[in-house]
Structures are given as C-alpha cells and as structure tokens.
Amino acid sequence: MKASILDLRYKTREVLRALRNRELVTVLYHGVPAGIIHPADSLQKSPRVQDTSFFGMNAKGKELPLDLVKRMRQNRYAL
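-> structure tokens emitted (79 positions)
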C-alpha cells in the first residue's frame, strides 16, 4: 500500500488495516517514497543484552570498568 502524509493522518484506520493484513506501507512525501512501515511481527527482534560485547565486563579475571577508564585516561591527565 502507498500512503501520503495526509493519508497517515486522515485514513489511519485503512493504514492500520493494511498493516494487520501484513502489507508493507510505503510513505510518500510529495509523491516520493520517504520510508516504509513494516507490520510489527515482521520486524527482527532486537539483540539480547547478553549477546552484546559489553556483557560480562565484570567477569572474573577481567579488569573492572572503572579501572579501565582510569587506565585509559592516565596519559591524558599526566603533566
């Protein structure tokens, strides 16, 4: 479905119906595609916190974050 900015405002029910029917809605601004609205269930799930590289920074045998910041700033404040 293609919808202009005014359609989003005045025909919201039709846009939501299209999304419920798992259609992509292309948003047009002055006739030019500005973006695409996807149905909510078709979006990828965001990564879990445990899967990021910063998870577990306090694990045994690793440097504490505050100690890491102090070490990184050490040369910057030296006179």
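The mean pLDDT is 81.
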